[in-house]
Amino acid sequence: MLEVVFSESAAGSLKLAQNCKKDKNILVEGKGSDVFGFHLVFSIGDIAKDGIGEGRLEVLNRLFGIYPQGKQAAEECYAGAKKQLQTIRKRLRGGGETVRLWYSSQPDELCGFYWFMTQLGQWGIPPERIFIVRLPDWEYNEKQDVVIRNSWAEVSPQEWHRYLMLQITVSQAVLTGCALCWKTLMEENAPLRIVLNGQLVSAPEDIYDSFIMREIELMENEFQEAYLIGTVIGKYRLGISDAFIALRIETMVEAGKLECITKSGEDAPTYHRMHRKKGGGSSCTIRN
């Protein structure tokens, strides 16, 4: 069975899960070569083109650009995804192999799910060869504490086998419905796609700014950007990445709402810097 996830972290965890044993039995059957991770961040940017268009590389360059060697990482991610998609198509159309998709309500994973289901429909893969596993929005652990996981990237290798009981076979109605939903989102081609009341909908690029500004107001006059980003991610669990929040903060700097007062190191993400709150203006002064 081919395994499809929508982040590199989830792919790595699932590969490790295939080596986990209990009472000498493998908990998740399969090989690492059967696991495919698409870290394409379809919740952000241009999705007008079918498959994996050039616009996706532009989005990845923008997001990865906040990290050292980000451009190289973006190009490798893009090229790897295109190669993986070709491999999956060849294997599914060439024989009787099956495929299992692991997804959640996190925007990137849900977008990836709709996108990949659309590809499967276009390839003519019979629904009875497609299986899906949705991550619960919340669950209980062994101590009966409530556990909330944002995405499959947060599931440890020792835990993946517990979710196999949630696997279901896809129907033609589900396959068609996913394709129609994704087609609508492609036609709208908004800057963002978010999950609202359980539904994937188009949204403006500044939809999350109020959460960021709320935390800025609670900060001291001078604050560390990395701390702000970590607070927004941990407190609100919006399912967005540190890179996207950093880009929104950069927009606030350009608008004169914040003033940069230190640089980040050459080997560090751009958000390893200090800011000062600012009432207005458009300048951004840097102090070494």
Short account of what is shown:
The chain is built from eight helices and 14 strands. The chain is α/β, with parallel strands linked by helices and 288 residues long.
**Global Rg:** 20 Å
Largest sheet: 5 strands, mixed
How many beta-strand segments?
14
Number of helices in the DSSP assignment: 8
* Fraction of residues in H or I helices: 25-40%
Mean pLDDT: 93
Largest beta sheet: strand ordering: 4-1-5-6-9
List SSEs in N-to-C order: EHEEEHHEHEEEEHEEHEHHEE
Strand content: 15-25%
pLDDT below 50 for ≥5 consecutive residues: which ranges? 280-288
SS content category: alpha/beta
Compute the separation of the termini in Å: 54 Å
Shape: globular
What topology does this entry show?
Blueprint: E1 2-5, H1 8-17, E2 21-22, E3 25-26, E4 35-37, H2 54-64, H3 70-94, E5 99-103, H4 107-123, E6 130-134, E7 139-140, E8 146-147, E9 168-169, H5 172-188, E10 192-196, E11 199-203, H6 209-218, E12 222-224, H7 225-236, H8 242-254, E13 258-260, E14 274-277
Parallel strand pairs: 1-4, 1-5, 5-6
Antiparallel strand pairs: 2-3, 6-9, 7-8, 10-11, 12-14, 13-14
Helix pairs in contact: 2-3, 4-5, 6-7, 7-8
Q: What do you see in this structure?
A:
The protein has 288 residues and is α/β, with parallel strands linked by helices. Helix content is 40%, strand content 16%. The protein has eight helices and 14 strands. The strands form five sheets. The chain has a five-stranded mixed sheet with strand order 4-1-5-6-9, sandwiched between helices. Strand 10 and strand 11 form a beta hairpin. Helix 6 packs across helix 7 and helix 7 crosses helix 8. The longest helix is centred in the N-terminal third of the chain and has 25 residues. It is globular, with a radius of gyration of 20 Å. The protein starts with a strand and ends in an 11-residue tail after the last strand.
